[in-house]
Automatic annotation (TrEMBL):
GO terms for molecular function: aminopeptidase activity. Its EC number is 3.4.11.9. It catalyses: Release of any N-terminal amino acid, including proline, that is linked to proline, even from a dipeptide or tripeptide. PROSITE patterns: PROLINE_PEPTIDASE. Keywords: Aminopeptidase, Hydrolase, Manganese, Metal-binding, Metalloprotease, Protease, Signal. Its cofactor is Mn(2+). Residues 40-179 form the Aminopeptidase P N-terminal domain. It comes from the Bacteria. This is Xaa-Pro aminopeptidase. Belongs to the peptidase M24B family.
Length: 547
C-alpha cells in the first residue's frame, strides 16, 4: 500500500512526496472462552510499558486514552478499533479506558508504590447482552496483569497528584468524541476529567506543539526543507501564524538568528511529542513474539494472492476477486483486512488508493491487487499485478519488468544502517532510467509523474506503522513497493495508457540484509503466468442466477 503524503508532522520531512494514508482495520480480543490462544502475552505488554516508562524524563507522568467509538450511520457503529499504542502497551481492546504510567512510584486510591494504573469500563450484564462481553476490573487484573486496575469512574477520584509532576506527557486528545449521557465515565468524560485534574491549558494546540517539536529536532540541520513546509502549513493552520515561537523561527534569516530562535522555545509542563517519539522507537523494531504474528499475516496474504491468480478470469469482477482474497484471510483466522482492499483493473489500477472495486468485468486489462490480512492486530501489505488473460501483452510486460527491476534495486538497498530512503532512491533511479529508455519521458525528473509515491513504510500494528524513519534497523519490517501508473490521456504513446503496475513485498531487515516475508506470492512474469495457468478450487463453484 503506498505510504502517506500527509503523515504525522514529526515524520513529514522524511516522507515528503508520498501518498495519502488509509485507515487500518481492527482485530480485537473479546473477553470470554473459546478464543484463539496465540495472542500476545501479558508479559509482552508489561515489558513494553516498562520500557516506555524508563524512557520518560524524571518527574513525569504519561497518559494514554483508548480510541473513541466511531459511528458509521445512525445507531450503527464501526467495529471498534483500539488505538494501536494503547493495545501495544496493554492488550486491552475495549473503549472508555485510560492508562497512566508514572516515572516514579505514586500512591493511587491509597495504594502506594504504583508505577502503572489502568482504568477500564466495568462489567454490565445488560450492555454485554447487546454488544459483547467485557473484561471489567477483575478480568483486566487477571488477564492483562497491570499493577493497578480500577473502574473508569474512579479516574476522577483516584487522587493522582497532577500538580506535582514536572512533565505531563499525553497522546494528542481526540476532538470528535461523542458524549453518552447515560455513561458518566465514557471517553468524553474521561478526557474532560483529565483536562480539569491536570489543569491542561485550554489553548494547547497539537498542530502548534508538533511544529514546535519539529523546530527543536530539525530547525538547524533541516532548515532548507522545514521552513517551506511550515510556511505552507501556516496557510491552512491559523494557530501557527499566531504562535510567536514558530513565527520567530520562520522570520530568522541567518544561521545565528535561527539558532537563537530554536533555543527560544517557551517552557511547558505539557508535551504531546515525547510519547510519540518514544513509542516510535519501540514499535519500529519488532520482538520475536510480534514477528510470529506478522509472519502469519504476511503468509496468509501471499496465499491469497496465489489463489486469486489461479481463479482470475477476464469475465470476473473486481469485487468478486476482492472476495476471494478476503475469504482466504478468514479461512486462516485473520480477523480483518489491514486496510481497505485495492483491486483495480485497467485505468482503476492507476488510482493509487482505489477502493470502489466495482468494475463488473476486469477483461484483459492489467489487474492490480493491493491487499493485506490482519492477524491479531498485525497487518500485511502485499501487492501483485496480473494479466487476467493469463499472459502479459508486450507493453504490459515491459512496464511490469521495469517495476520488478526497480523493486530488486530497492531490495538490494535494504541493509541495516542504510538511510530509510535508500530503497526509494534506488527504485526511483531505475524507474526514471527505464521510462527514458522506453520514450515515455524526456527528462529524469518527469518520472515522478508516473511513480509519484515512496517505496517504503513501516509495517506492524498499523499498515503505515510507527517508527523513526531514521537508518534502517535489524528487526524492523518495511514494504518495498515501486510502481508505474500511466492513466489515459498521459503525454506518451497510447499503447501505454491505462497500464498500472505495483509490486509490493514485506521485508524484514536482518543483521546481514533482509528477508522477503511475502516471497510465496509469485513475482516474476514467468512465475505469474505459470501459476495463472493452473486450475483453481473455484473453477466449479457457481451460484444460482438472481432474477
Amino acid at each position: 500500500m503506498p505510504i502517506s503524503l500527509l503523515p504525522k508532522p514529526a515524520h513529514l520531512l522524511l516522507l515528503a512526496g508520498l501518498l495519502l494514508a488509509a485507515p487500518s482495520a481492527q482485530a480485537q480480543r473479546a473477553a470470554g472462552p473459546d478464543r484463539p490462544a496465540d495472542f500476545l502475552s501479558p508479559s509482552f505488554h508489561k515489558q513494553r510499558r516498562e520500557l516506555l516508562r524508563q524512557a520518560l524524563p524524571a518527574g513525569s507522568v504519561a497518559v494514554l486514552f483508548a480510541a473513541p467509538v466511531r459511528n458509521r450511520a445512525n445507531d450503527v457503529d464501526f467495529t471498534y478499533h483500539q488505538s494501536p499504542d494503547f493495545y501495544y502497551l496493554t492488550g486491552y481492546t475495549e473503549p472508555d479506558a485510560v492508562l497512566v504510567l508514572f516515572k516514579e512510584p505514586q500512591t493511587v486510591k491509597g495504594q502506594a508504590g504504583v508505577t502503572e494504573a489502568l482504568f477500564v469500563q466495568p462489567r454490565d450484564p445488560q450492555a454485554e447482552q447487546w454488544t459483547g462481553r467485557r473484561l471489567g476490573t477483575e478480568g483486566a487484573k487477571q488477564q492483562l496483569q497491570v499493577q493497578f486496575v480500577a473502574d473508569n469512574k474512579e479516574f476522577a477520584t483516584a487522587g493522582i497528584g497532577w500538580a506535582g509532576f514536572a512533565h505531563i506527557m499525553y497522546s494528542p486528545l481526540a476532538t470528535d468524541v461523542r458524549d453518552d449521557s447515560r455513561d458518566p465515565a465514557d471517553l468524553y468524560n474521561l478526557l474532560a476529567s483529565f483536562r480539569q485534574q491536570a489543569a491542561l491549558p485550554a489553548d494547547v494546540n497539537p498542530v502548534v506543539a508538533e511544529a514546535q517539536q519539529l523546530i527543536q529536532q530539525r530547525g538547524l540541520t533541516g532548515a532548507a526543507r522545514l521552513v517551506p513546509y511550515l510556511q505552507n502549513l501556516t496557510q491552512t493552520q491559523p494557530a501557527l501564524a499566531q504562535d510567536a515561537y514558530v513565527q520567530g523561527y520562520l522570520n530568522a534569516k541567518t544561521d545565528a538568528e535561527r539558532q537563537k530562535a530554536v533555543a527560544n522555545r517557551p517552557a511547558s509542563r505539557f508535551d504531546t511529542q515525547v510519547l510519540d517519539a518514544a513509542l516510535a522507537q519501540l514499535r519500529e523494531v519488532k520482538t520475536p513474539e510480534e514477528l510470529v504474528l506478522l509472519r502469519r499475516a504476511v503468509r496468509i496474504s501471499a496465499v491469497g494472492q496465489q489463489e486469486v491468480m489461479k481463479a482470475t478470469r477476464p469475465e470476473m469482477g473486481e469485487m468478486e476477486l476482492q472476495g476471494v482474497h478476503e475469504y482466504v484471510y478468514k479461512k486462516y483466522g485473520a480477523e480483518f483486512e489491514g486496510y481497505p482492499s485495492i483491486v483495480g483493473a485497467g485505468g482503476n489500477a492507476c488510482i493509487l488508493h482505489y477502493t470502489e472495486n466495482d468494475k463488473p468485468q476486469v477483461k484483459n486489462d492489467l489487474l492490480l491487487m493491493d491487499c493485506g490480512a490482519e492477524y491479531h492486530g498485525y497487518t500485511a501489505d502485499v501487492t501483485r499485478t496480473i494479466p487476467p488473460s493469463g499472459k502479459f501483452s508486450p507493453a504490459q510486460r515491459q512496464i511490469y519488468e521495469l517495476v520488478l527491476a526497480a523493486q530488486e534495486a530497492g531490495f538490494a538497498a535494504c541493509k541495516p544502517g542504510n538511510e530509510f530512503q535508500a530503497p526509494n532512491k534506488a527504485a526511483q533511479q531505475v524507474v526514471a532510467e527505464g521510462l527514458l529508455r522506453l520514450g515515455i519521458i524526456k527528462k529524469p525528473e518527469e518520472a515522478r509523474k508516473y511513480f509519484p509515491h515512496g517505496t517504503s513504510h513501516y509495517l506492524g500494528l498499523d499498515v503505515h506503522d510507527s517508527g523513526t524513519y531514521g537508518p534502517l534497523r535489524a528487526g524492523s519490517v518495511i514494504t518495498v513497493e515501486p510502481g508505474i501508473y500511466i492513466p489515459e490521456g498521459s503525454p506518451c504513446d497510447k499503447k501505454w495508457w491505462n497500464i498500472g503496475v505495483r509490486i509490493e513485498d514485506d521485508v524484514l531487515i536482518t543483521t546481514m540484509g533482509y528477508e522477503n516475508l511475502s516471497r510465496e506470492a509469485p513475482r516474476t512474469v514467468a512465475e505469474v503466468e505459470s501459476l495463472m495457468a493452473k486450475p483453481s478450487a473455484l473453477d466449479d463453484f457457481t451460484l444460482p442466477a438472481l432474477k
